[in-house]
Amino acid sequence: MYYTDNYNTLDEWVNLVLSGKEVYPSLRIPCDEWVEELIEGIENRSTDYVKDILRCLLCPITRGIDVSDYKTYLLLKDSDNEAHKDFAKDMFYSERYKRLANGQDAWEGLTWIIELLPHSPYKAIRALESYIYSQPSLPDDRIYGGDQCIQIIVAKFINFENSLEHLTKLKPVEFEWLIENLYESMGYETVWTTATRDGGKDVIATIERTDGEEQVYVECKLYKTTKLELNTVRAFRDVILENKVNRGVIFCTGYVNDNIRNFDKRIQIWTFEDINVLFNAHLGSDWVNRLAILIENKRRKYGRKREKLTK
Known about the structure:
single chain; 311 residues; alpha/beta; Trna Endonuclease, Chain: A, domain 1; 2 domains; 5-stranded mixed β-sheet; 14 helices; 49% helix; elongated; tRNA_endonuc-like_dom_sf; hydrolase; Restriction endonuclease; endonuclease; Type_IV_Methyl-Rstrct_Enzyme
């Protein structure tokens, strides 16, 4: 495979692509080793640097073969040969040719997904996956580059470690509000229940799916060192059965053993490691910096004053 010889490092390659210099490949990071090294040390890379790399991989492109194919399409379309015209009719439905006809690049860029970072990395990944799925004739380098983008986004913005202390310093009600925020970010309609009326659940989350409505009961356990007890899970299971709910989820920052995790398949138990990943993916990798805002918005919604927060 042909590679230009005007770069020796990832940084040199990035600078060439961003400056519009001739470089190949330009739609994917040339070496798998560079991708691995980037991911291994990504916590030491700034968000701006990572976004620069994503821009390299997501820019719009028009290759020489795209222009050549379009010229062939025009020749076939204007041909006197009926077979050629029929073939051109099939080619007519390609959005690639319509874009070229309008003076656009053959392959649209996806740099707009960078604006979803760091607040909504999961949505950025879903958008990229949908684009790749919708374009079966994408250039191989764009497909490889798209996969590299997903790996980079996951490493930088989702698998980012935060300290448990950020949660354990919260009041239980604030933790519940944060979990409600999480479900809202995932597209659920939510109801937060008060302590006197929760009936064994803290949040009720509902979403319409293609196969019907799903309702989830959510229980929040903000522990520092306490372990989750089987009696607690069993009682929650009974609430789910009594109310004929699809499933239940327990968010627990304390210790959870495997026996309790596997107690009932209708109950999903998330520990802090899981919670952190979910928060990063749906609330943004900077959720720690926005804790005060997220909680204050809920406080205003429910009309609670800071000094009266009790539960």
